[in-house]
Amino acid sequence: MLTRGLCPENLSVGSLPRLRSWVISKRRRPFPDGKHENSLEDHETVVGGYAIPVRSSLLDPIGGGKDVSERYTKALISERWIIQLTPPPPFFGLRKRYSLEYNQMVGMKTSSGATPKQIVALSNEVEISIKLISLGLGELQAISATNCFYHLPLLLLSNGFERIMKCMICFKWHHDTGKFPSTKDINTHDLVNLKNRIISGCISINTAFSRPITKEDYEYMSNDEELNNIIIMLSLFGKFARYYNLDVVTSNMRLTVDIERMWSGFENELKEKHYDLIALSNDPARLDDYFHELNRIIVIKLERFARALTRQFTLGDLGDEAKRHCGAIGCFLHLKDDQLGNTNYKSSPIRGTA
Hints:
Elements: E1 3-4, H1 40-47, E2 50-55, E3 72-77, E4 81-85, H2 92-106, H3 116-141, H4 151-177, H5 191-202, H6 205-208, H7 212-223, H8 225-241, H9 244-249, H10 259-273, H11 275-281, H12 287-315, H13 320-323, H14 326-333
Antiparallel strand pairs: 1-4, 2-3, 3-4
Helix pairs in contact: 3-4, 3-12, 4-5, 4-8, 4-12, 7-12, 8-10, 10-11, 11-12, 12-14
């Protein structure tokens, strides 16, 4: 447990007992592993504080058969923090894991001003969002003459793009202020609003027009009418349509949207723009080909959007933390133009069907 405290004037370091503990300091650097005793003066030199015995309220995560209510730990009191010191675990592997878990539990600050738990959580969120988008594209590719279950791809895609854009806002916020936004700062399911925040707040004009590819991405996200229509429908789905049928059943008076009807209208608009689709749709024997080609157009639109977003992790103004996630976002980050629409997301390793 971490609490603020002041260095007491009446403590004398030399009068305190010698310490044999693995110290977990706010610098997250372990002291020697307890094979020999270390004097309090050694700890004071490194951390700049005093050690005093305090009763532990923590359970021993390693065990050892001792009554923790009678066991004492140590506390290191510096000018800003009181930090619990606990006896070292018996094995190096457990000790290393215990150090990491303890740091995450107490929320100790890193040099960037964020806690390790926050950094890990944001990394997990980036990975989750990319998987949701990939799975959503796979479910969209699975739509056919005999499979009209649009709810699943809409659910996955709306959630995945919402998450990745919120992650980008968190990275940018942290880069600019040294801390992460509060829940209320990103508490929305409005993908249109999030996209506008990315364009206006996370991408500077100088950065956007510094390279041909980032300029192309910026203009695509800002001006492509078909992409904007897709994002509007995903946004409406996330805000109003996830429980459309239950809202009808319960006569819910709030705004509800029949998003599948809207999506069908959007498909008809695409069909009118592509004459080859009209021919396919009029041939009952080739309806599966029709849906394949139709959804390929939509998949390309969303792949370009995902690629434009993930490029900002490395080429944009999101900061160093964002640049460390190239591996998680690589499936969209490294997409080439001639690969758009040609990835079989239905056979993704995420599904276990690779």
